[in-house]
Amino acid sequence: MNIQPPPCSFAGYVSEARKQLVQEWYDALPPDEHDELLDTVNYLASMPITAWRRPEFDKVDSPLCEIRCKAKKANRQIRVYGVFDREIRARFVMLLGNEAKKRSKDEVNQKLALKRLALLEEGKASTHEFVFEKGFARTN
Questions:
Q1: Tell me, what DSSP letter sits at residue 3?
Q2: Domain residue spans of the chain
Q3: What residues does 82 pair with on adjacent strands?
Q4: How far apart are the two ends of the chain, measured CA to CA in Å?
Q5: pLDDT band at residue 88, thresholds of 50, 70 and 90?
Q6: Residue 41: closest CA among 94, 118, 106
Q7: Contact 125, 16 (CB under 8 A)
Q8: Among the residues of 8-99, which ranges form H helices?
């Protein structure tokens, strides 16, 4: 019997003030950067999470991971830090989105993402179903 793993779903971080911070960041990206990230997420969503690899996905410091792509026009890296949900199988929770020209380790934003994770685990923050533009087909 060939059992297929479930496709990944995506959630966004909701702050204590009920702001959808990653969603707001994503929605405000310039069109070309928005499209690059959307293409990357669509690519990752098309395969089981066990097959996610560099350059589109990388583990940062456990449990933190990043989805990343390059915005060619602006010559900068787009990174979305997140974790796999411990309660919902194959669900990636996006904690923080960032774009910068640097390619080096992004310690400041990684620490902020981990703080957001701690707030989630304490029940002070929450998540929402992330809303992508056309081209993203939710399958669950």
A1: P
A2: 9-129
A3: 65, 94
A4: 21
A5: confident
A6: 94
A7: yes
A8: 21-27, 31-45
